[in-house]
């Protein structure tokens, strides 16, 4: 499952576990996607923040961000969803850290152009289509849904934003999901209210597990706790 979470390699997952994730509408967390790349981008942006204090720190930070993101993309196999997400966040990283204004529609359009320029057959890739439709739907629909309610409680606000993002993305991919897969995951909305807010914690916990395991100092209770969570 760790391989699937970080690298998108799902071939060794037990069939029963895979089926359970699918039925719960949570199989997307086992495929490296824009959500994963976005969380990793935020973590890296936070970790590299002290570099900004150096001379030309923003430029150095941007280089580190791009190198790390594309290194991750190569390790993850340069799939359509990962390539799209890393391309998009690379443009965002350059614009933000070099103090340039960004427009999400322009960013997505440039991402599509760059990806199809090098891999034109991605236009027929289902994951590529789903990925961009979901992002476009989130950008177009989520702000309107988010205006319907403005909770003051921070926890409620997080869950409301999660719900609006989930609904928006699902609206965007429903047509293609029905066309290609002939099914709609009924538990999608419910499962994602729990899964998406926790995914950042799960990925961070997973990185810690991998680092500790690589130097042979991983406590068994941490490994057991992570296994229970996922």
UniProtKB/TrEMBL annotation:
Swiss-Prot/TrEMBL keywords: Cell membrane, Membrane, Transmembrane, Transmembrane helix
Q: Which GO terms describe its cellular component?
A: plasma membrane
Supply the InterPro entries for this chain.
ComEC_N, Competence_DNA_uptake
Q: How does it sit in the membrane?
A: Multi-pass membrane protein
The compartments listed are:
Cell membrane
Q: What is its main location?
A: membrane
Q: List where the protein spans the membrane.
A: 25-46, 58-76, 105-122, 128-146, 158-181, 187-213
Q: Which residues form a coiled coil?
A: none
Per its record, how is this protein called by name?
A: ComEC/Rec2 family competence protein
